[in-house]
Amino acid sequence: MNQAKDNKLPETARVWVYQSQRKLKPEEAATIQVCLNDFLENWTSHKIGVVGTGQLVYNRFLVLMADEDMVKLGGCSIDSSMHFIKAIQQKINTDFFNRLSLAYKVGDDVESCSPEEFKSLVDKGIIHDETIVFNNLIQTKQEFITGWEIPYKDSWHKNLAVSNTPFSSLL
Fold first, then answer.
1. Among 65, 39, 43, which residue's Cα sits nearest to residue 54?
2. Which pLDDT tens digits describe the chain residue by residue (171 residues)?
3. How far is residue 99's CA from residue 146's CA, in Å, rounded to a whole number?
4. 3-class state of residue 135 by DSSP
5. Quick one: which of 11, 42, 84, 170 is 20 to 30 A from 125 by CA?
6. DSSP notation for 70-134
């Protein structure tokens, strides 16, 4: 694979965000980066190297990007990335696949909680209009740049907290 810096990828590059259940320790982050670099060097789709990049952000989010203008990703290449993430989570004992966990910033730290806890934090005013929340449902580099870290007031999270709509129906 040809690794690319994310600034070299087009804004249409495909993005996947995997959120750890906990903040990762510096040594875990270093291990992940080494494994991630190795995965990216060998990531292929239909025997062609995928042009992509990846990094750990805030020691909590594992972000992968791939330029599908260069190489279309097939099911096997996407499956291989999922297997890679599963192997990493086993290696460091965390969960990167709990989509029911919501992340938000408190100062420079990132916290996460269940949808029920999130609603409670909104009700108590701990999470408010200007609290930064993370939209892990983004799909492109452009969305990552402009819509991954956003104020609560501009997020889909607000719909969750102001309604009795189950979280799973918002996904």
1. 65
2. 445 555 689 999 999 999 999 999 999 999 999 999 999 999 999 999 999 999 999 999 999 999 999 999 988 999 999 999 999 999 999 999 998 999 999 999 999 999 999 999 999 999 999 999 999 999 999 999 999 999 999 999 988 766 555 545 544
3. 21
4. coil
5. 170
6. TS---HHHHHHHHHHHHHHHHHHT--S--TT-EEEEETTEEEEE-HHHHHHHHHTTSS-TT-EEE
